[in-house]
Amino acid sequence: MAEAKRGKLISVQKHLRDQVANALRAALIAGELRPGAIYSAPALATEFGVSATPVREAMLDLAREGLVEAVRNKGFRVTEMTEGDLDNYTEIRELIEVPTVGRVTEVATEEQLEALRPLAEDIVKATRDHDLIGYLEADRRFHLSLLALAGNDHLVTVVAELRNRSRLYGLTDLDRAGVLVDSAQEHLTLLDLMIAGNATAAQELMASHLGHIRTLWAAGRRSAAKRASALRLGEG
Question: Domain 83-228 has what CATH class?
Answer without folding.
Answer: mainly alpha
